[in-house]
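Q: My labmate handed me this sequence with no annotations at all. I'd like to see what the chain might look like in three dimensions before we decide whether it's worth expressing. Could you predict it?
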Amino acid sequence: MKFFTISFFALLITLFGDAHATGKLRTYTSEDWDYWEIDLDGETGKLRTYTSEDWDYWEYNLGSASGKIQTYTSEDWDYWEVDGGSIKIKTYTSEDWDYWEITGSGIDIDARTYTSEDWDYWEISGNATAKIRTYTSEDWDYWEIDGSLSSLSIPAKMAVLFIPVFTSSIHIRRINK
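A: Here is what I predict for the chain of 177 residues:
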């Protein structure tokens, strides 16, 4: 019986062990909100503004993939497009920075803070599930990623990671509208 129990748990770990994403997301240097480093499931990359302090246009790379995330219209931070509109990132209601929807390319994902305006902790649900939280409360330049993002394309993963990056960047600069 003991052998069967151990074998069963070993089988479960083998079957479901790779579906669990872990990673880190952090600013290049403390307080540099324009440039972020990504480490997700062994792949590394960057997310940065195209020009310093231009919050409307971001570029990313993860592994060998690269692309861009930009506002649909200038300074409308409620609506973003990844790679020319293949994926859309929108606030659920205008200027509600703690609840976002990600759609397009066969995905439907919600990203919301654990409680209203708790910028330290994000829950991802829908086609992917994850928790993205700060390492230390209100230390928004270092995040830990825990969940299942492996089924998502790289642009979809970047859409998920973009939300805490963008909201913490504008919140810490006190430029959220």
